[in-house]
Amino acid sequence: MTLLLLEKHVDWGVEKIDNLIKGGVIVEALDGPAARITLNQLNKYASPYVPDDLKKEIQDILDAVIIGDTKEMAAEAVDLLEHIVNTRLVNIKPTANEIIIALLSLVKAALDALLEDK
Fold first, then answer.
1. Which of 5, 30, 50, 87 is the most buried (most CB within 10 A)?
2. What is this structure's pTM?
């Protein structure tokens, strides 16, 4: 079984959660391990329910998040949404499918314009 989160994604998540939660000595000793256990359990139990082709796209988004590439992150997120629409919602009426794709294109254009300003 392919896992949803790679080890680098779990490590990054644990680091962010550990930096976010501040408290006394006991809290600081427990927050990192608790975050790791939570993310690993989520990974273990959610992975079987996510198709492998979507796992790769989710991992690509997380890779962009980790390196801080907001333009790539937005592009990967739009690719994921387009993939879900094109493969998972094939049974909807073609007109509705075209409307969804047009809306996603609009969102992508808005994200591109927003990111160009930064």
1. 5
2. 0.60
